[in-house]
40S ribosomal protein like (Actinidia chinensis var. chinensis), 323 residues
Amino acid sequence: MSFPAGHKALPVHDPNWSKLPLTTSYIYIFTGLGLCFTPFRHSLKEKSTEARRRREGNTMARGLKKHLKRLNAPSHWMLDKLGGAFAPKPSSGPHKSRECLPLILILRNRLKYALTYREVIAILMQRHILVDGKVRTDKTYPSGFMDVVSIPKTNENFRLLYDTKGRFRLHSVRDEEAKFKLCKVRSVQFGQKGIPYLNTYDGRTIRYPDPLIKANDTVKLDLESNKITDFIKFDVGNVVMVTGGRNRGRVGVIKNREKHKGSFETIHIQDATGHEFATRMGNVFTIGKGTKPWVSLPKGKGIKLSIIEEARKRLATQAGAAA
């Protein structure tokens, strides 16, 4: 039996078969059962591996994703499942993407001032929308809890609050209440040259605060001057709103504060009907001193009803309308 020039027959058990030149496209292996042709493409595999490494080494990072699927959007946006494949992806801003409401959803889905995406852009580019006293033209700007959305053309002001089901509500407020907002203090620190400053939940940095203000307290911020006019201590007996967890949107008074070393602090809250519940400290936002909140609350006043109570209330409303 003859082989092409440069090739030779090796038994299968011979360890030298792998030492052939990489340029060899095929190795003919002679077995007792006959001559078989085994493709062994070392050179092609090596070339493809080198090419892949070269491509990966020259490519740059792709960055953040610019799209958001509708099924992956937060449920409190209340988007239609069949309304399209994609949802507006929030821009970078003062609130987390899962805890915000983009301006396009406020104008198109909630207030119904626009029917389409292009109409929203037209409204924003005319500089008609203000958030916390500043004009915003980004259609996906992330407005969040306690933000004040103003429309001077219609003389309307709305404050973003939660209902007892954890969904955002555009609560209409008067002009006097639209001039301020409440901000939760995240931390109090000292900067260069010993200058004290505090950080708020919406990314603000305020220098030279009152020395009595500590973390988890709430400050009343004037939106025109960006200065602190008053503050609320995070103490037992003050009214709070829950901004996270399964009790989001509920309003009550702090009854007890449990400290657990190495774990989350637990806050026990009692609402106006006497029901008590507990949540983590990070989910609590102080909104007033004593039992009186500093901001007006949406319908329901933060009191969560059971399924039976909701049904009875609905039947009573229907009976009153029929009469």
Summary: The chain has four helices and 22 strands. The mean pLDDT is 87.
